[in-house]
Amino acid sequence: MYQLSRSIYRELAPQILEDQVAAASGSNHERVLRACEAAVYRLATDRHYFAKPSKTLFREIRIYFPMSAQDRVFRVVDRYMTFARQWFEAQPTHGYDLAGNRLECRATTRKGTPCQRVPLPHNGYCPSHQHLADEDFVAPEVSDTPGTQVAA
């Protein structure tokens, strides 16, 4: 995980603006590195609820770069975050996330407690709660006559 965030930082580091005033919360370089690490960690552990990781990270770090470098910064962030998302999705889960936490279904039971079954990797729901997954995964049935659909 940290190799990905450090790669983003290393590619962007030469263009980071120097600090105007010494701040107690760290230098601009440290803030960019921490933001990259946090974004990659969140992508690894919570990618179902992290809709736009590239945009989020870019918004957080763009103030540390000159205007002339903004386009390049976004392209670098987008390239690495897209690669990271693809890599994390390709990793086998075996019931645990990359941080070692046990994976649980995104649904809740009838009693209101979180479902504790292991989710399927493609959508985060266990086999019992697949009906709650996005409709993007379900193809509508089409009848033989054009212009009509069969109700499911």
Provide structural commentary:
The chain is mostly helical and 152 residues long. Helices cover 39% and strands 0% of the residues. The chain contains 4 helices and no strands. It has helices spanning 2-12, 28-45, 53-61, 70-90. Mean pLDDT is 80; it is low at 136-140.
The structural class is: mainly alpha
Please tally the β strands and state the result: 0
Tally of DSSP helical segments: 4
DSSP strand content: under 5%
What is the H/E string? Answer: HHHH
Write down the overall mean pLDDT.
80
Compact summary:
This protein has helices at residues 2-12, 28-45, 53-61, 70-90. The chain has 152 residues and is mostly helical. Mean pLDDT is 80; it is low at 136-140.
